[in-house]
Amino acid sequence: MGRTRALALLIAAGLALPARATDTPDSIFACMRANIPQTVRIQTVEIKAYDRTGGERVMRGRVFGTRENNRARVMMRVEAPPDLSRSAYLIRESDPSDEMYMFLPAMNKTRRITGAAMDGKLWGTDLSYADLKQIQNAFTGAGVTLEAPGDIEGRPVHVLNFAPRTQEPSRYEKIRTFVDQKTCIALKAEFYEGNGVRKVLTVAAADLKQAGTHWYASSAKMQDLKEGTHTVLKVTGVSAGDKLSARYFNPTQFYQGN
């Protein structure tokens, strides 16, 4: 199977299309992919990371996304807390593997995230760099199989299994996704480490929102079952079709300015 993407932090997805008897992994991912706007701007993304005792750390920022030759580019710029202000993160779809960059203002330096570093925690949350790439870029994989349809909160879902691409090191053996048949949004994703589920990403049906003809999830939760921690992502002010500067997605400029 070729590249299969479904951008999800934005956590943007789909036009409302009915399920068909001829649905295949390719057609499901195509539905997810086709519904990503050419450009998208999220005025605020809030990330709350909760530790084992319930203590929380809150981050806020803005997200910008575009497609270039049908390749996704996604950039997040952190505005709070003060110790992370002006940090920025960029993902660029590419062959044979995607490009990931982080700007750290304290070092005034951009570094590319590669290899084992991709499993490091992003800003102390339950999301690793690799997790965020999967969620944003999303659900890139190989050997995709389609299970029997399922149900989440009374909504029919497609159930897909796939392994991360061999070009991109990952701790996960496979990722199992549950894709809402109406909106083409992944309502759940299970990340398998060895034979067991290490992390679970969930989106409540009540958090599915529509901006114009596009659906998106206004909230998502990532749980680390081994660590007993979780992180909640919320987005507001989603708009599509805005003209965005190319520098937002340039590895040498993405962290500059507003």
Explain the overall architecture.
The protein has 258 residues and is mainly beta. Helices cover 7% and strands 45% of the residues. The protein contains two helices and 17 strands. Strand 5 and strand 6 (99-104) form a beta hairpin. The longest helix is centred in the first third of the chain and has 10 residues, at 25-34.
What is the residue-averaged pLDDT? 81
State the total count of DSSP E strands: 17
Helix content: under 10%
Q: Helical element count?
A: 2
Query: Which structural class do you get from the secondary structure elements?
Result: mainly beta
Largest sheet properties: 14 strands, antiparallel
Low-confidence spans: pLDDT under 50, at least 5 residues? 1-21
What pattern of helices and strands is seen along the backbone?
A: EHEEEEEEHEEEEEEEEEE
Distance between the termini: 39 Å
Estimate the global geometry from the Cα principal axes.
globular
- Percent strand: over 45%
Radius of gyration: 17 Å
